[in-house]
Please model this.
Amino acid sequence: MAGMIHGTRTAMLVGIISMGISVIIGIFLGALAGYYGDRVAVVKNPSIMIVMIIIGFTSWTGIAKYTRAELLKVRSLEYIQAAQSLGYSMRPEDVTWGSMLSTARDNFSAWWLAIIPGFAIFITVTLFNLLGEGLNDAMDPKLRQ
Model:
């Protein structure tokens, strides 16, 4: 049980950061498609998918340059250098839901070792999905009518 609680920290951090990145990309692409929608959508068929594909293929270089510059700046910060000198990272003995599933893969006779962290991941993903859908329903102006 303690491993499940401790593994929650890493699972939540990975989920929140990765979804944050997805939200940033989605807001950026959606804003561009919304702002330039009529002019850009005339290119072929009036489809938002085409607009998103065009924007995705043409605008990644600026984001890559900006990200590189920011990471070079962050990499030179003192606390990053201190963490590197200490060798800080996820160690193999750190308990995460993923490490618990990996350990359970080698022991088929103890099926509960895989079921419990797998079910925790399933419940967490489902709850965040339902939360996102609820927020979408609450903030969608078309559904408020």
Q: What stands out?
A: The first helix runs from residue 2 to 35. The two ends are 46 Å apart (CA to CA). Residues 96-139 form one domain.
